[in-house]
Write a structure and sequence with these properties.
Structural class of chain A: mainly alpha
Radius of gyration of chain B: 20 Å
Strand order of the largest sheet of chain B: 1-2
Number of strands of chain A: 0
Strand content of chain B: under 5%
Shape of chain B: globular
CATH superfamily of chain A: Ferritin, core subunit, four-helix bundle
CATH class of chain B: Mainly Alpha
Helix content of chain A: 55-70%
CATH superfamily of chain B: Ferritin, core subunit, four-helix bundle
Mean pLDDT of chain B: 93
Mean pLDDT of chain A: 96
CATH class of chain A: Mainly Alpha
Order of helices and strands of chain B: HHHHHHHHHEEHH
Number of strands of chain B: 2
Low-confidence stretches of chain B: none
Number of domains of chain B: 1
Oligomer: heterotrimer
Chains: A mainly alpha (about 260), B mainly alpha (about 325), C alpha+beta (about 210)
Largest sheet of chain B: 2 strands, antiparallel
CATH architecture of chain B: Up-down Bundle
Structural class of chain B: mainly alpha
Distance between the termini of chain A: 34 Å
């Protein structure tokens, strides 16, 4: 690293990003084999694999910074040690929920990586620059499906609208500020959650406005926060137990 | 993943009497000369019917085959296994897509095929009616069931129908990854801790009988398939595929010091054939007719997926876009 | 009756046992199909890869990307609605389809348009892109293609696609394939376990 930066702040940023991607990748992987259309099943599974791969890249960076190896970090912590937002841990629900989450979350992660690609933390900037390409596909996919289903039938529009209203407060939880937010900004690691939020609003509004959907009025004060400091919904711990079920049969061995 | 060989209809030779004898001669000469038949070519009604039947069963086997291993997607131990299993199950869905497409070129729509699957009018490979009880079961499936499928599919990829052969070539390439991944995972269990070795031995014990069923009943009691062999719809007999599988994989099982749950299994060095305890073909019939441990669940899951996805497909339909038979 | 499942994903769906006989009570919701062509390297021709079901060309493109280029390399992709491909008859072995143009029915001339031309030179293989011609009808496009591309082996079958019907990749979208070569979890090479096996066998030797 070029200069001495706040390592705690950096790690917190890395953990929350990686944890988001890991948990969302896991959730989205649940659709593999039971998707609404064979082609969409395949596309959705690829994006879930991408997300898990992205989380792995960041856990590897954390490992370089002195944290435990990726498998231990990802599969051996408990819920209160996870920094993901609550949004990503919610069950997959019906397809409209998974789709709306994919749309809302993926816009935020693309913008995050776009910002991080000029981060003062070189290894992070490198990862970010690389992943922006594959995330472009995720956004093309999310936008197209929101546009198609958001202008499709009365049923599809109403399903998406209802879900959007339920999802927005959770989506706002993505932008929960870090305790060391100001250090990240002053060290030029990251331009900060508020900046990200502003850009995100712009992007999602553009897409929603091209559909029959109405973006609910929203305000960061309604955000479902707490995830970033280890406070989670009851859905996370059972998911983590499931993820680690086999590993925990014998954690000391190579599977 | 498909073993094939199991549910051909008895061929009615009088069907052929209705075909134009000159066209039939040309068709058979083309196949005998090693050429492929393409969708726009003339073909006997029976050829089309049996191909649709076979490719459709194969496609169903892929989409249903995604379910037993899918059981372990959220629990795969660690990043490497998690990513591999996701990609593996995704490939099975992809294979279904390729195979339904190949069958579509013969004139049956995918939705029709999906309905026949869910209604129970169309079969799929029997082996997927068994449960993947532990993680080790999923690794045995990835290794041995895919190995068996490759034996069958490599043979069929030399068949006569162009679109099916092309799909199979692509599928075999992808399944070589499945096989390697499965073997890798089994090696790790078999050479690992006591718990792991026990898990994988137990899984092998469970999957061996369905694996012996996988290639279908022995040739001596199978329905006659001579004309299908002549037309290169069916490329190898059930027993040939089974023997080839045993030849390739029993030594690999033994080198891991795992035991095959058949005391009579041995290679007769004189005949160069494997001898084994005859699988229980009554059970095979019972399971294929719906009475296996997971038949109900497999079809119910597929039905649920179709029903939950229906609003999506409906919303995507545009009135001006019409379905035509795809080209190749 | 609720069905129990070993699969936690399925368990969460609260799967019900169902009679399956009444499933086809609904009309078919069959989407149209699109033919997909991919290019593996910039120096290689686009080749037919298969079909996808999709609502629109842009959706077909997104689906095709993951169905036909989730491994190895890819530098471009084209999709076209199946009913927008103009197809000649198949010629028999050793006969060239271009030699039969004179027997094809005449076509009315329309506006000049660009057509992409695809050849099949062996049954069982895929159609390959050979180039582009400008013409006022499919038949004229075929005649021009004969002049420009008819060389070497007999051509068994020709596909013509108006370029306005083709959905192609924008150059700036090529980044969607940029990390493809790193998706090694889908590759055989990532699963070598020979050393582990060898070690295991060596350890077994003394007593076995």
């Amino acid at each position: 690293m070029d200069k001495v930066i706040n390592k705690i702040a950096l790690k917190e940023l890395l953990y929350k990003t990686a944890d988001d991607l890991l948990i969302l990748g896991h959730r989205n992987s649940e659709w593999t084999g039971i998707g609404p259309l064979l082609e969409e099943d395949i596309a959705f599974s690829s994006m879930a694999q991408d997300k898990i791969g992205q989380s792995l890249a960041i856990y590897e960076l954390l490992h370089d910074l002195g944290e435990a190896d990726p498998d231990t970090v990802a599969f051996m912590r408990n819920a209160e040690q996870f920094h993901n937002c609550k949004f990503v841990e919610l069950p997959i629900g019906e397809y409209e929920f998974s789709l709306v989450r994919h749309f809302l979350y993926d816009h935020s992660i693309l913008l995050r990586f776009q910002q991080l690609s000029t981060s003062s933390c070189q290894p992070l900037a490198q990862i970010a620059r690389k992943l922006v390409g594959e995330l472009r596909y995720h956004i093309m996919h999310a936008d197209l499906f929101i546009k198609k289903l958001g202008t499709g039938t009365d049923e599809s529009i109403s399903r998406l609208q209802t879900t959007l209203e339920q999802a927005i407060p959770f989506a706002l939880g993505v932008f929960e500020r870090s305790p060391q937010e100001s250090d990240l900004i002053s060290d030029l690691i990251f331009t900060g959650e508020d900046d990200l939020y502003t850009r995100w609003c712009h992007e999602i509004t553009k897409v929603i406005e091209s559909t029959a959907l109405v973006l609910p009025q929203h305000n960061l004060s309604e955000a479902k926060t707490g995830g970033r400091i280890g406070q989670h919904t009851p859905h996370l711990q059972p998911l983590l137990d499931e993820m680690a079920e086999v590993l925990r049969l014998d954690p000391s061995t190579d599977w | 993943m498909y073993g094939g060989g199991n549910t051909f209809e008895a061929t009615k030779f009088d069907n052929l009497a209705k075909e134009d004898p000159i066209k039939l001669d040309e068709f058979e000469a083309r196949i005998a000369g090693g050429e492929k038949i393409e969708p726009a070519d003339w073909m006997p009604v029976l050829y089309r019917k049996q191909l649709i039947r076979m490719i459709e069963q194969h496609a169903h086997s892929e989409i249903i085959g995604a379910l037993p291993e899918g059981t372990w997607i959220t629990r795969a131990p660690g990043f490497k296994r998690k990513l591999a299993l996701m990609a593996k199950v995704q490939d099975e869905v992809g294979h279904a897509q390729l195979l339904y497409s190949a069958a579509e070129t013969l004139g049956k729509s995918r939705e029709d095929m999906m309905q026949d699957l869910i209604n129970g009018r169309s079969k799929y490979s029997n082996i997927f009616n068994y449960p993947a009880l532990t993680w080790a079961d999923s690794t045995i499936i990835s290794w041995l069931v895919d190995a068996g499928a490759i034996v069958n599919q490599l043979a069929n990829s030399k068949g006569s129908y162009g679109p099916y052969c092309r799909a199979l070539e692509r599928i075999c390439v992808e399944e070589s990854f499945h096989l390697k991944y499965g073997h890798h995972a089994v090696i790790h269990l078999a050479t690992g801790s006591k718990i792991q070795r026990q898990m994988v031995q137990e899984a092998l014990n469970r999957w061996w009988p369905p694996m012996m069923h996988f290639f279908g009943p022995p040739d001596r009691i199978s329905v006659h398939t001579e004309v299908l062999m002549k037309w290169k719809v069916k490329m190898a007999t059930n027993d040939e595929c089974r023997q080839q599988f045993l030849d390739m994989y029993v030594p690999k099982i033994w080198e891991l010091r795992l035991s095959v749950p058949d005391p009579n299994l041995q290679k007769n060095e004189e005949t160069r054939q494997w001898e084994y305890t005859e699988p229980d073909w009554e059970e095979f019939k019972r399971v294929i007719n719906g009475d296996g441990p997971c038949n109900k669940e497999r079809l119910a899951v597929r039905r649920m997926a179709e029903e939950r996805g229906r609003w999506v497909r409906k919303a995507l339909l545009t009135p001006d876009a019409k379905y035509v038979t795809p080209l190749a | 009756m609720a069905l129990d499942s070993l699969d936690p994903r399925i368990k969460r769906c609260n799967l019900q046992e169902q009679r399956t006989k009444d499933f086809n009570s609904q009309p078919l919701d069959q989407l149209p199909t699109y033919e997909v062509f991919i290019q593996l390297k910039e120096t290689k021709a686009f080749e037919h890869a298969g079909i996808v079901h999709a609502a629109t060309p842009d959706m077909a493109f997104l689906f095709a990307k993951e169905q036909f280029s989730r491994r190895y390399t890819c530098t471009g992709m084209w999709v076209v609605p199946s009913d927008r491909v103009w197809v000649t008859a198949f010629s028999d072995l050793e006969e060239n389809i271009y030699d039969q143009i004179d027997e094809m029915p005449a076509q009315e001339a329309g506006p000049e348009e660009d057509y992409e031309v695809f050849h099949l030179i062996q049954r069982g293989k895929q159609h390959q892109h050979v180039g582009r011609v400008t013409a006022n009808s499919h038949l004229q496009a075929l005649q021009k293609a004969k002049v420009r591309f008819n060389a070497g082996k007999p051509i068994l079958n020709v596909w013509l696609i108006k370029i306005n019907d083709l959905q192609t990749t924008n150059l700036e979208d090529h980044v969607i394939w940029s990390t493809l070569h790193e998706k090694t979890h889908r590759d055989v090479i990532s699963y070598r376990a020979g050393d582990k096996l060898k070690q295991f066998k060596e350890k077994q030797q003394p007593d076995g």
